[in-house]
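Q: I have 159 residues here and want to know how they pack in 3D. Can you give me a structure?
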Amino acid sequence: MPETPQNRQTSISIDSPVGPLTIWGDGQAITRLDWTRRPAGPPDALLAEAARQVQGYFDGSRRDFDLPLAPEGSEFQIAVCKAMSEIPFGQTRTYGDIARELGAPAQAVGQACGGNPIPVIIPCHRVLAASGLGGFSGAGGIEAKVALLKHEGAASLLI
């Protein structure tokens, strides 16, 4: 596919307590976040704002994100991302909770959470297994999930 202004991806990298993060966007929306440091092109205003909001999340001055998001995935994966985005700061839900809401198996919800292309901003770390933490696809694995939950004051749920 030829590169156009609509599909051109640029990024901005920031440091965070859970490691370096790179936020990607297409000029219209945030499309992914990963645990790397690899900027691609000069960041636009949206990426600069996303970096400011993520840094605010980590410094404690922000609990919610106000960014246009465009996660890629199936209709089901997008529905799971929407459900995760509705979980308030410092609260958790289980894969089963989301599964019941969407009328799907909990395992499918877990797989969709694991494929979340915009972790932290779409808070898959707030989704737990019925009997424990469940998984986490970000670098650092479960330790990063625990760090994010502790940051939000949800660590008491882990005991």
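Q: Anything worth noting?
A: Helices lie at 45-59, 75-85, 95-102, 106-114, 141-151. Confidence is low (pLDDT under 50) at residues 1-5.
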